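Write out the 3D structure for:
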Amino acid sequence: MKTLLSLLTFGLFATAAVAAEPDTRLFEMRVYYAAEGKLDGLNARFRDHTLKLFAKHGITSLGYFVPTKNTENKLVYFLAYPNREARDASWKAFQADPDWKAAAKASEVNGKLITKIESAFLTATDYSALAQVKAYGQGVFELRTYTTEAGRLPDLNARFRDHTLKLFEKHGMTNVSYWNLAADQKGAKSPLVAGNTLIYLLTHKSEEAAKASFDTFRADPAWVAAKEASEKKAGGSLTIKDGVKSEFLVPTDYSPVK
């Protein structure tokens, strides 16, 4: 019988090298906003019950994170499924499981744990490394979200594929995984829009190291040239005004990726 660990190791996060085979799975990014004073209880429910029940129902747990500056009491996590049909079937079975119902009820004896849920369905880019669980041994992860001008997501993906990933590594950043929003967002609860969004994860030794890496990256003549060429080809900036968002995260103690 497969252990929980062996099931989890089919999950997220690969080496910096681009995967030899495309990762065709469906991914899901979920963000839970915990009620005031309830984040510890939410984490305990995931640690003690949810991850085991996800595995039982064919849901691959990937990385579980909290922001370093967690003013909104957030839990951010990533899941993977063979496809959308498998995702919907797994969640239906999970939500109907008596063990889940009992765990949820017991955890909320003193009030609801969650005030809001956001979710988005993702597909791996063709330049993302094949996703697998890995201990990175770094200090922080960085979740970055780019929103492009209409029609310019292919240009942004091309720039990352041909230039950015290599330059990130050159300047001390570790590439983790890269996704676009899946075309089918039915049932998702997210402000993000399919067709113009790139979401990716990096790791750094610290937030200070991340700043230093990005400073040298942005000053690199190779990056300056690649950026100018890509914007000239596209007819302007690839991202909208204020279209680049960054958030530093640390893995929870129960996260398969560290």
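The first helix runs from residue 4 to 8.
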